[in-house]
Every structure is written in structure tokens, then in C-alpha cells.
Amino acid sequence: HLLVTTGALGLVLGHPFDTVKVRLQTQTTYRGIVDCMVKIYRHESLLGFFKGMSFPIASIAVVNSVLFGVYSNTLLVLTATSHQERRAQPPSYTHIFLAGCTGGFLQAYCLAPFDLIKVRLQNQTEPRAQPGSPPPRYQGPVHCAASIFREEGPRGLFRGAWALTLRDTPTMGIYFITYEGLCRQYTPEGQNPNSATVLVAGGFAGIASWVAATPLDVIKSRMQMDGLRRRAYQGMLDCMVSSVRQEGLGVFFRGVTINSARAFPVNAVTFLSYEYLLRWWG
Ligand SMILES: C[N+](C)(C)CCCC[C@H](N)C(=O)O
């Protein structure tokens, strides 16, 4: 329950940052972080920052269980040491990286439809239902899922899933390597890292992996928005090429600043609850 509660809390607090990131990556109307925040607040009120939040919250438990479950089981298979023995016999960084990649690969498939609906809802700029004004295209997460299914077919729900998988497979390896590396650096041999170490290592793991993930994150978000009206991109490669042509190489780092600010607290609490769970039940 702790994993679920703190994970959800981190997600709620981090969501406004995520919304600004997604808008900066997929829309050209904003000049920067502050401009985007001011416009959202003016046109959509505070509620605008929380669009698309319910599905990520509903799915975080499943997605994180898949990620951390696959990660620790892959490590178990690779190293043949249990959780209890792990502090005495720490796994190699190669094994950590491979286990992280495996976890990232499998969680990406669970995440894909939820992430798609989140991005579509976050990009709706209409203010909340006002009498007289036309309603937004999607009325909520379930309506959004049903509309995508109807308009774009069942495969439509997996739009951008390939880019998401490519984004997450190596960067989840980086995520766990950074976390383990920092923990080992600041923990005496054979001991468990203390809470402060876990928080800081988790926070930096979040930042490091998100910085590495940003180029494909931009492409992923753009692929997910494609198909809404008419298709603009032939595929992932075409999306990359035309984005760079139109906006320069800087396009690959859209939203990296605001996303890093979000990543630190969110991933600090994620790893803290992971460590507590391991110690209680591991
Ligand atoms: C691998 N990648 C960098 C994409 C994500 C790493 C952190 C995932 C975490 N649930 C979060 O929302 O921050």
C-alpha cells in the first residue's frame, strides 16, 4: 500500500510539470516553460494542469509492479542470489543494466495505452465544460479510449508504443545503474542504504534516465498525437527527420528542464517505497 500511496502522491504533485512538458513537446504555440504555464492558467485555470491524470494514477501500481517485479526477477535469474544475499554479494553493473532493460521493455507495453490517453487529454486546450462553448473532443479518459478504439481501431490504442518501447528499454537500464551506483557509493559495504541515500539516488536516477530518454520521448509524444486529424508522419523515422528539419536538433531536448524538476521527487519516493517493500517482504 505504501508503494501505491506514495507513488500516486508523487504522480499527482508531478503531473502539472508533466502536462507542461507534453505541451512543449507537441505544440508550437508556447515560447517556453513560463509562457506555457501562464497560458494554461489563464485559459484553463489550475484544473488545466491536471488534465489526463486519472489513468496514470489508476495504472501506476500495475506498471511499477511489472517494472520492479521483472527487474528483480531477471536479476535473480542472472545472478542466482536472493534479495537477502544481495547486499553481501552485489550484482555486476552489466546484470543490473540487463535486468533494467528487460523490466523497461515489458512495462512499456503495459504503459502504452494509458500513456497515449494521458497525452491526448493533456493536449486538449479547451477550458472545462462551459455552457455554450463547444465541448472538447474527448470528455474523459474512458470516452477518450472508446473514441480512439472507434476512430483508429484497436491498434490505435498502441499508437507510439514502438517509440515508447525504444525510449524505455535502454533508459530503464540507466535508471537502475544510476540508482545502484549512487547507493553503493554512499553506503558502507554489506549494509542497506539509509533513507536519505535512497531518496537522493532515486532522484538522480530519475533525472539521468529522463535526460537520456528525452529525444525519444519527444518523438513518442508526437507519434501519439499523430492520427488525431490527418496523419502527418509516415512512421517514427519520418517523425524524427521532419521534426529536425523544421525545428533543428534542439527539438530532441524539448521539455528536458521541466521534466527533470518533476523526475527528482517522483523517483525519490518511488525508490524509497521499493526499498521498504523489499525489506518487509523480500
Ligand atoms: C525510463 N524513463 C526515463 C522513461 C522513465 C524512468 C522513470 C519512470 C517513472 N515512473 C517516472 O514517471 O518518472
Automatic annotation (TrEMBL):
Its main location: mitochondrion. It is a multi-pass membrane protein. InterPro entries: MCP (IPR002067), MCP_dom_sf (IPR023395), MCP_transmembrane (IPR018108), Mitochondrial_Carrier (IPR050567). Pfam families: Mito_carr. Keywords: Membrane, Mitochondrion, Mitochondrion inner membrane, Repeat, Transmembrane, Transmembrane helix, Transport. GO terms for molecular function: transmembrane transporter activity. The keyword Metal-binding does not apply. It comes from the Eukaryota. The chain crosses the membrane at residues 55-81. SUPFAM superfamilies: Mitochondrial carrier (SSF103506). It is found in: Mitochondrion inner membrane. The keyword Ribosomal protein does not apply. Solcar repeats lie at residues 1-77, 91-185, 193-280. GO terms for cellular component: mitochondrial inner membrane. PROSITE patterns: SOLCAR. Belongs to the mitochondrial carrier (TC 2.A.29) family. This is Solute carrier family 25 member 45.
